[in-house]
Amino acid sequence: MITYSAIRRINGEVNSLPYKSDAELFGTPEFWAAITEAGGDCEDFSISKYHRLMQSGATPQQMRFATCFVEPKANPDKSKRYHAVLLVDFDSTTYVLDNRHPNPMEHEFLNYEWHKLQVAGTQTWEWAQGADRSFT
Questions:
Q1: What would the mean pLDDT of 106-133 be, rounded to a whole number?
Q2: Average pLDDT, integer, range 31-38
Q3: What is the pLDDT of residue 91?
Q4: pLDDT tens digits, residue range 1-18?
Q5: 80 versus 114: which is more confidently predicted?
Q6: Which DSSP string do the residues of 65-95 spell out, in sequence order?
Q7: What distance in Å separates the CA atoms of residue 71 and residue 93, rounded to the nearest whole number?
Q8: How far apart are CA 109 and CA 88, in angstroms?
Q9: Which of 35, 38, 105, 134 is an S-S bond match for 48, by CB 3.0 to 4.6 Å?
Q10: CA dihedral sign of residues 7, 78, 115, 30
Q11: What mean pLDDT comes out for the span 109-133?
Q12: Cα(80)–Cα(89) distance, rounded to whole angstroms?
């Protein structure tokens, strides 16, 4: 069984790794893989957190990947604000594990425009409520 302290610890450990774009690491604009000591981008951080949480007792039904747009007023170009995170359900709260924040954040306190959410425990993704479906 996973604990909040394990969620927080794993988020911090993975976040301590360097951020590097897929273009820098793989020579391609987008490539989903677990982060390595060489670094990774947002989805790589999320994948590694998922695997480490599974090893610490979390279940697939407690976790799901999500994509969103960050800082809605910072840049009108949505492609520059697209971001991936891991959502973890624990103790009746959904936490966002995000490489942009040192600690797990309660999802309702983040000013993110949610785009797509993985259905927990599956490979299926669904649109977030009110999502911009013109951006794929």
A1: 93
A2: 88
A3: 96
A4: 899 999 999 999 999 999
A5: 114
A6: EEEEE--TTT-S-GGGTEEEEEEEEETTEEE
A7: 23
A8: 15
A9: 35
A10: negative
A11: 94
A12: 28
The verdict on pTM exceeding 0.90 is yes
Compute the distance between CA of residue 21 and CA of residue 126 in angstroms, rounded to an integer: 26
Per-residue burial over 91-108, b = 16 or more CB atoms within 10 Å of its CB, e = otherwise: eeebbbbbbeeeebbebe
The band of 76, judged by pLDDT with boundaries at 50, 70 and 90, is confident
Q: To which H or E segment does residue 114 belong?
A: strand 113-118
SS3 content of the chain, % helix, strand, coil (to 5): 30, 25, 45
Which amino acid appears at position 89 of this protein?
D
CA distance 121 to 129: 20
Q: How far apart are CA 54 and CA 20, in angstroms?
A: 24
